[in-house]
Amino acid sequence: AQKITQTQPGMFVQEKEAVTLDCTYDTSDPSYGLFWYKQPSSGEMIFLIYQGSYDQQNATEGRYSLNFQKARKSANLVISASQLGDSAMYFCAMGIDRIGNEKLTFGTGTRLTIIP
Amino acid sequence: GAGVSQSPRYKVAKRGQDVALRCDPISGHVSLFWYQQALGQGPEFLTYFQNEAQLDKSGLPSDRFFAERPEGSVSTLKIQRTQQEDSAVYLCASSTRRMRGAFFGQGTRLTVV
Questions:
Q1: Which residues numbered 33-52 in B keep a CB inside 8 Å of some CB on A?
Q2: pLDDT by residue (tens digit) across A51-81?
């Protein structure tokens, strides 16, 4: 079974500062992927970034980067130069890279609030 | 439309009533997922379709929950004899490539009174 742990229920960050959202995972499968999603108050889950377990380099997408430490089983999301529009719930998720097994396992989320 | 569309956005049901939730995935997306998100929690997997085939329904909490996707596009999640613990947001997602992130709809918020 897979498990995702997000230990920060809420975070407050000053606008324009960088922020790191923590995520640890547990799985015995060697091939897997890690995802981060943003959920604003409108409710839609917005895909941010993906990291494969065999990827050699950390994933980056604009202001988002994923700090992947395989030995520690952590996949922290780093948001640089935070903006007011970054205020939302953030979920870390994992999927096993096996044909027919498409589902994602989500953590409990971190509520990020950006302070002007 | 360009994204995943779910209807209705909000549904209030009396306990014992049957409900049907609709999902229109992104055109051409083979994979379709249903998730249940309780208040203050992350989404939990319910079921998965590849085209019209339901390949995984391990997350459906009871036999009161039923999902279908008869023509491989639109999907319906049906909940029979709703109970208060069924109150949650039901999210639908679709994807075209495995392990590249699914696109989610805005969800249907179901409240059972």
A1: 33, 40-45, 48, 50
A2: 999 998 999 999 999 999 999 999 999 999 9
